[in-house]
Structures are given as C-alpha cells and as structure tokens.
C-alpha cells in the first residue's frame, strides 16, 4: 500500500492513539470515583501512557531500575522502611514545589488512605537520610522498597494524579511488585506472549515474590489491566484463568488484600 506522507503520519497518529487507549472499552461501568477523570481508561493504561515519554529506565512500565541491587531481593528487611518505637512506620517525604496546592491535596489524600488502614505514616521530612521525594517527572513511577537516601516517586501532573495511581506508586515504594509477576501467577492468569512485543516481554517475567501466604488477588491495585503492553489492539496480554471474565486492573484504590499485605509485611 502506497501512502502520501501526511496519510502515513495520520495512520501513525491513529495507531499511537490505539496504543494509548487500549482499554477504553473495558475500563468500567461508569465507576469513576472522581468527577475530574475524563474517560474510562484504566490505571495501567494511564500509567503506561503517561510513561511513554519518560527517559528514565523503567521496569514493568513504572518501576525504576535499581542501581545497586536486584529488585527481587527487595523483600529482605533492608529494603523495608523501619518501624519506629511508637509502632508506626514513619516514612519521611518531600513534595516538589511544582505541584499546586490542589495537586498536593490529591497526593496527601492518597497518603492518608495508608494512615487510615495501616501503620504506615507519611511525615514531612526534617533531616532524615532516607526519604521519598515526590516529583513531577515524565511519568508515574517509583523505586521498589526503600532504596536508601533520597528516592524519587514521580507523579506527573498531567497523567498520574489519580487516587488509584498514587496508591499504586506508593505501594511500590513500600516494596510491593505487580500482582501478575507473582511466583504463582501461572495458576491464575495466562500471559498471551503472542500479543506482546518481544522487546516488552520482560515486563511479564515472573518474580521470586514473597506472597505472604495471601491469595492471588485479581482486584489488587498492583495488577495490570488485561491489555497492558498488548501490540494487538484490543487483544489480551493477560487473561484470568479459568474464568476469563474476572476483572483485573482496577484503579479505585487498595483492595482488602493490598491493605492486609502491608499490615503483614510491616507487622502493623
Ligand atoms: Zn507499577
């Protein structure tokens, strides 16, 4: 097929849009929790879309590549945030001045959700060595667990300031990986490798995760949506088994087991 340059460009743009909005059709039955959410794109798509432009080295779409150690070892105590004598896990943070007060409120609300259900407490940094620096960088991403020193948690103003995404990235910073990379995931989901760009296949590799004796959780906020990284428009990269109709990739907020795992991991 021969096309004029402008037609090719248009096609490229359209393809780009398909890639960027692969889950519109399944995003949900009007379950948007917040009025400002403009469409029904699910959280995974939103994160991946927001991250298309980033020049950070990202794993699985939104995990910062560890510079000093393998992320799989992150379940050792050294990658966790420490519990203070008052029984709370105090996590110091700073917030970039690039955020407006309204945007700060959104982030604050995301953090408060951890306060109300776990022993995690986010506190403004005084002079602590280890802390989370919340910044408006080119995407939604975080390091895995506590890395030591300043660690960036990026929430791009345009694409990441949604309650579910904020919680998802914070959960990474607490040490949690994506649900579908769990060591036992093959019993619960099928990865459709034929629908995944081979260069992106590493995003679906299993990890040696500590599952804390908790069940596989389709409703986890850490679970990818079913067409994440799919190169076949509308086709699943992840299919729940045996029931393919189970919903995955929700973005409303932490599930029962998401909360339970934080409490288990940190001994809340
Ligand atoms: Zn993630």
UniProtKB/TrEMBL annotation:
EC numbers: 3.4.24.-
Residues making up the signal peptide according to the UniProt record: 1-20
Protein name: Metalloendopeptidase
Entry keywords, A to Z: Disulfide bond, Hydrolase, Metal-binding, Metalloprotease, Protease, Signal, Zinc
One annotated Gene Ontology cellular component of this protein: zymogen granule
Keyword RNA-binding attached: no
Domain Peptidase M12A: 70-268
Key word Protease present: yes
GO molecular function, one term: zinc ion binding
Residues reported to bind Zn(2+): 168, 172, 178
One Gene Ontology biological process: proteolysis
Species name: Sparus aurata (Gilthead sea bream)
Active site: 169
Cofactor annotation: Zn(2+)
Cofactor binding note from Swiss-Prot or TrEMBL: Binds 1 zinc ion per subunit.
